[in-house]
Amino acid sequence: MNRQNEMRHSNARTRIRRGGALASVGALAMALTGCVGATTAPVTPGQAPTMSSAERQQGAQAHPQLLAEFGGAYSGPQANYVERVGKRIAMQSGLANASDAYTVTLLNSNVNNAFAIPGGYIYTTRQLVALMDNEAELAGVLGHEVGHVAARHSQQRQQAAQQNSILGAVGAILSGVLLGDSALGQAGQKLAMQGSQLLTLKYSRSQESQADDLGIAYLSGAGYDPIAMSTVLQSLAQQNALDAQMMGSSNQVPEWASTHPDPASRVSAARQDAQGMPGTTLNRDAFLTAIDGMMYGDDPQQGIVDGGSFIHPVMRFAFQAPNGYFLVNGTQAVSISGQSGKGQLTSRAYSGNLDSYVSAAFADVTGDSQQQIQPSSVSKTTVNGLPAAYGTARVNSGNGQVDVTVFAYELSSSQAVHFVTITQAGNAGIFNSMYSSMRRISASEASAVKARKIDVITVRSGDTLQGIANRMAYDDYKLERFLVLNSLTTNSTLQAGQKVKIVTY
Fold first, then answer.
1. Domain LysM, which positions (predicted)?
2. Angle, nearest 10°, between helix axes 284-291 and 77-90?
3. Nearest of 417, 418, 434, 410 to residue 341 by alpha carbon
């Protein structure tokens, strides 16, 4: 939860977030109506069409918005390394002056994602890079995104989205997603279709398959082992499975799925396509050396999730989720997921009046929809010394009734934060312990918050999987996290001298 993003008050629109990743109206609409762009035009590797000035302008305008929405650009040697690999693989597209035509950005984001927009803008998150095992896998992911640009998939998605009149369907999406069968699966704030979101709509399976094929061809052309596309997809599928295990299967919200179809279904196809293609380079040691020390997980500047606890050392507050609930931090909100309810913690403009703040937060839930939600009353209270206000609105949906609650806290005369939660009617009290846990933190407690990082270590004689996993900077799932991070299984054998990744402070 980024303070700078939260404090851009005036006309900022808060988006629904899916496990901390941006979920646009377009993505929600296509989840209801099916994927767009079912067919794709042939694209020959090495013969990418020239980018138009309109494409370049479109990408340049969206780029700053995407940086803000995904935590900003990660700087330093890791970012420089990702950029070099990305521009090297982009040369395989055949676009004239590709090294300068493509802009490759490492995002300071704790979600596993990568995407591309028109104009040659390619993005990957540091979290996804940390999941990779070698440079070839990095090149494969970036080559896949270059393939989306070369095939003009974003433009196809925009055309289809416009044809489906997504902007005119906000009310239907609200009632069908927020208040219908998926009422407990989608809770948030104002639904907004902005330019940068339209550029990152979900790909169709045929588009995804075509980008995989192009990425594999680019890998081979650059001398990398083309099998790396299938291995990185396999790692991503394993991470998604672990996320689902930690969150509970009913709460599975793979980050990659916000803009890409399931990676598990594409592993075998990518492996088969790579068979017989030239290329053997992996550059594992160079890759591990490059990412050693890179931040992993939450950035303290955006707050830290630690199990069911959230602490923000910059905004100086903390809270605890109910038992059995799972927290995921995003740049603009913290999502809260459980079997009996969903919610998020976020912020909006604050003028010093908590009553009007709560009313405005309820209005954010429905956004531009004609169905407005407001509580029958707003109550005042104090929580651990913080002035607070709250209200609950019971809403009729096609499948019964749900309770939407806004619980707001004044952090200062010009700053407030609030929870938005949604439960089945009569169950709003399941979040009471969370509401009452909100508290200020001291300067010493704030200064003690540290970032996690990737630490590349060398296996010593006698080391075991569990022994190394015990060094992971987590209180739970130590072994499972270590295995997925290194593409290992419980049957894997460690060799002295082997390099592996762990997460430390």
1. 455-502
2. 140
3. 434
- Dist. CA 183–CA 171, nearest whole Å: 14
Residues 416 and 410 sit within 8 Å (Cβ to Cβ)? yes
Domain 300-447, classified CATH 3.40.50.1220, yes or no: no
- Using DSSP, state whether 216 is helix, strand or coil: helix
Q: Which residue has the tokens 């903390």?
A: 318
Between CA 171 and CA 34 the distance in angstroms is: 18
The residues of the chain that CATH labels 3.40.1000.10 are: 300-447
Start-end of CATH 3.10.350.10 domains in the chain: 452-504
Cα dist from 496 to 43, 126, 212, 460, whole Å: 46, 28, 35, 5
Give me the CATH topology for the region 452-504.
Membrane-bound Lytic Murein Transglycosylase D; Chain A (3.10.350)
What's the half-sphere exposure (Cβ side, CA atoms, 13 Å) at 176? 12
pLDDT (tens place) for every residue of the chain, 505 residues total: 764 444 333 322 222 222 332 222 222 222 222 333 345 666 677 667 788 899 899 999 999 998 988 899 999 999 999 999 999 999 998 887 777 899 999 999 998 889 998 899 999 999 999 999 999 999 999 999 999 888 876 665 555 443 333 222 222 222 222 333 333 333 332 222 223 333 444 677 788 888 989 999 999 999 999 999 999 999 998 998 898 888 775 444 444 444 555 677 788 889 999 999 999 999 999 999 999 999 999 999 999 999 899 999 999 999 999 999 999 898 889 999 888 899 999 999 999 999 999 999 999 887 655 567 889 999 999 999 999 999 999 988 767 889 999 999 999 999 999 999 999 999 999 999 999 999 999 999 999 999 999 999 999 999 999 999 999 999 999 999 999 999 999 999 999 999 999 999 9
Query: Do β-strands 121-125 and 103-107 pair in parallel, antiparallel, or remain unpaired?
Result: parallel
User: For residues 197 and 84, what is the distance between their CA atoms, to the nearest angstrom?
Assistant: 27
Tokens describing residue 436: 């009452």
